[in-house]
């Protein structure tokens, strides 16, 4: 007696198959193939949500209200727009329960978030949150304290560009280990493009719930000064990744960061890649000899002179004895010419580099296929 069997659907195979599908239109089609494809298709489709328009926010809110099970698939939620957050329809979306949300990015390109603090409070309080970005935030000390008072205690990665009003009129207590011990949230990474005084003062304030004790990665867009080192005193032996703007001899402050092994050199807006090569050579030899990896960011690649780049790279081992990995993060200029970009990469791949064989050089860009950084960066 023969038994007729239906199609074989193994969840692992379906998930593997869908991992190669990236276009949202294709994912929607996959979710409609059959009943067995619905769950893995919806899981992939709603795992990462990016919202840029009011219509998108309203459509997502309606979908999650109609089919509440979809919210459990959302792990990353990115909201980035030009409108004032006060008038963006977030209250309806914030009322939805996201039980597995781990990454939240709130970015307003022309406004700031303090005016919508009560609206986004439920999102910041989601217990599963691990990584949070809120840019920018402008407010008083009391407003900042209220905004972050109920946030999730599981946040480990924070990016917040903040400006504190009336900073000069507020007495901030000196940094000390005892202050950090009483804070309820232990950060692993912190990123800020705000003014140094604002970020430093906020981290030092007892009303800030975030402690830098045990911090592993720091990404800042300003020079490293003594005031920042004072705040980082509980983390001087734990920070291994430092991202900063190279600023001449002031890089000697890195000597206090005793565990740093990776440098992420940011574009300083006034000079390019080769200027940064010169700046890092001014570091203290004790710091240079601890560095295993260096990443140079945001250089416009058609302007890179390959012979000069070759010379700079080939001499790195003379200054960084234990250096093993160099990553160049290159980007095309605004209104770039496709033919010019293709010509650059053709020359780049054909160039005969005179590199030290002990150093691996990788190149990332928005045009070439992405080559992952060998360890987690911010």
Strand order in the sheet with the most strands: 1-2-3-4-5-7-9-10-11-12-13-14
> How many helical elements?
15
Q: Any low-confidence stretches, pLDDT <50, length ≥5?
A: 168-173, 175-181, 366-378
Biggest sheet details: 12 strands, parallel
Radius of gyration: 24 Å
**Mean pLDDT score, rounded?**
78
User: Hey, roughly how much beta strand do the residues contain?
Assistant: 15-25%
Q: Strand-and-helix sequence, N→C?
A: HHHEHEHEHEHEHEEHEEHEEHHEHHEHE
- Overall strand count: 14
The share of residues in helices is 25-40%
Instruction: Tell me, briefly, the overall form.
Output: globular
Class per helix and strand makeup? alpha/beta
Amino-to-carboxy terminus distance: 62 Å
Protein name: F-box domain-containing protein
Organism: Roridomyces roridus
3D structure, described in words:
It comes from Roridomyces roridus. The chain has 378 residues and is of the alpha/beta class. It has a domain at 240-378. The chain is 31% helix and 20% strand. α4 (54-66) links the parallel β1 (48-51) and β2 (76-81). The N and C termini lie far apart (62 Å). The model is unreliable at 168-173, 175-181 and 366-378 (pLDDT under 50).
């Amino acid at each position: 007696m023969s038994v007729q069997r239906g199609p074989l659907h193994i969840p692992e195979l379906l998930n593997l198959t869908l991992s190669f599908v990236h276009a949202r239109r294709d994912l929607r089609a996959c979710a409609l193939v059959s009943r067995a494809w619905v769950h893995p298709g919806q899981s992939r489709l709603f795992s990462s949500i990016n919202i840029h328009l009011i219509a998108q926010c309203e459509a997502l809110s309606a979908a999650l209200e109609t089919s509440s099970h979809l919210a459990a698939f959302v792990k990353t939620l990115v909201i980035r727009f030009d409108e004032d957050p006060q008038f963006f329809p977030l209250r309806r979306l914030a009322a939805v329960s996201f039980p597995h949300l781990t990454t939240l990015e709130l970015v307003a390109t022309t406004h700031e978030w303090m005016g919508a603090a009560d609206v986004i409070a439920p999102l910041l309080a989601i217990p599963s949150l691990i990584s949070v970005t809120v840019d920018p935030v402008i407010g008083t000390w009391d407003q900042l304290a209220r905004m972050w008072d109920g946030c999730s205690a599981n946040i480990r990665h924070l990016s917040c560009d903040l400006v504190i009003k009336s900073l000069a009129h507020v007495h901030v207590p000196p940094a000390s280990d005892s202050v950090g011990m009483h804070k309820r949230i232990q950060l692993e990474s912190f990123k800020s493009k705000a003014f140094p005084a604002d970020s430093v003062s906020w981290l030092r304030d007892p009303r800030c719930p975030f402690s830098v004790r045990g911090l592993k990665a720091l990404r800042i867009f300003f020079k490293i000064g003594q005031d920042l080192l004072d705040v980082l005193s509980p983390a001087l032996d734990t920070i291994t990744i430092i991202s900063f703007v190279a600023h001449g001899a002031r890089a000697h402050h890195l000597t206090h960061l005793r565990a740093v092994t990776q440098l992420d050199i940011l574009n300083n807006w006034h000079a390019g890649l080769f200027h940064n090569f010169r700046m890092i050579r001014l570091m203290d030899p004790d710091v240079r000899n601890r560095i295993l990896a260096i990443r140079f960011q945001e250089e416009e690649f058609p302007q890179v002179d390959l012979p000069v780049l070759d010379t700079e790279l080939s001499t790195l081992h003379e200054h960084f004895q234990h250096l093993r990995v160099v990553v160049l993060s290159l980007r095309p200029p605004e209104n770039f010419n496709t033919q010019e970009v293709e010509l650059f990469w053709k020359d780049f791949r054909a160039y005969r580099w005179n590199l030290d064989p002990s150093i691996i050089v990788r190149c990332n860009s928005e045009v070439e296929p992405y080559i992952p950084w060998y360890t987690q960066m911010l």
